[in-house]
Amino acid sequence: KSGFVSIIGRPNVGKSTLMNKLIGEKIAIMSDKPQTTRNRIQSIYTSEDCQIIFIDTPGMHKPKHKLGEYMINTAKETLREVDVVLFVVDESKDIGPGDQFIMEQLREIKTPIILVMNKIDLMNPEQFKNLYEQFKDQNIFADIIGISALENANLNALVEKIKDFL
Ligand code: GDP
Ligand code: MG
């Protein structure tokens, strides 16, 4: 199996950490520098039976940029062209305005979106369940998974979920 995946989410939710854990720091070719080229390959995950090509999505990270609207539209085009979108969020009591903004954009996209609830190591089960239900009620996610990128928790399960859509 092989396919294209984009990881999006607010700053500091753990996108880079997740990518590095999945790819292994050695062969990661990603960078956090601003990019203007569309559909730039960020890094490639390979295992015996699967290859996942991560595509950078500049623009979704900085919705308040001066070129905001143009960037967001470009980002949306990228999200339409990949096979799976990973929308990464982190711990909080309720869904915040940053995540609300991104979800508004995601509603217009038919690509399957996996909600990745990162930093479960910082959440108690009740907090996780409460946040999980709030995101589930949005009705935009093909799947939802809790992980800890930092502690390597549930990352294999995430890869399996990605494969389901390739
Ligand atoms: P990005 O801006 O989305 O790329 O976020 P980073 O990957 O740079 O992570 C931002 C911060 O969150 C860093 O200090 C990470 O160490 C931390 N972080 C990432 N994943 C986890 C996690 O699963 N648990 C905890 N506790 N911290 C995390
Ligand atoms: Mg980053």
TrEMBL record:
**Subunit architecture:** Monomer.
Extract the ranges annotated as region (G5). Answer: 147-149
Species in which this protein is naturally found: Serpentinicella alkaliphila
Q: Where in the cell is it found?
A: Cytoplasm; Cell membrane
Keywords assigned by UniProt? Cell membrane, Cytoplasm, GTP-binding, Membrane, Nucleotide-binding, Ribosome biogenesis, RNA-binding, rRNA-binding
- Membrane topology, record value: Peripheral membrane protein
Query: Residues annotated as region G2?
Result: 35-39
UniProt protein name:
GTPase Era
- Residue ranges of region G4? 118-121
Tell me one GO biological process term.
ribosomal small subunit assembly
Q: What does this protein do?
A: An essential GTPase that binds both GDP and GTP, with rapid nucleotide exchange. Plays a role in 16S rRNA processing and 30S ribosomal subunit biogenesis and possibly also in cell cycle regulation and energy metabolism.
